[in-house]
Write a structure and sequence with these properties.
3 helices, 91 residues
């Protein structure tokens, strides 16, 4: 798997884990007769910070993979970029 693909996969996992936290809290409170902000915050507290921490870690790894893949691409194509930059404009 290429680094760019791995980076995108990790970012998708981060988005999934971030959403799972809220969906889990909503499912947990589905039997409630009334809803309020405080009640939903309490349900989020019952879920914990595990999915949030995992999503942040996955996001950081995904961004690192994307930066690493672009860094390699720039190293590989730096000479061509320099040649194109210094080439006089043709009319």
């Amino acid at each position: 798997m290429q680094r760019r693909t791995a980076g995108v996969v990790f970012i998708c996992i981060a988005a999934f884990l971030y959403g799972i936290r809220y969906i889990s809290a909503a499912i947990f409170g589905s039997n409630a007769s009334s809803w309020s902000y405080e009640m939903f915050r309490a349900m989020l507290g019952y879920i914990g910070n595990g999915p949030l921490i995992a999503s942040i870690a996955s996001l950081i790894v995904g961004i690192a993979y994307l930066v690493a893949s672009e860094k390699d691409w720039l190293k590989k194509n730096a000479e061509q970029i320099k040649e194109n930059w210094n080439e006089p404009e043709r009319k």
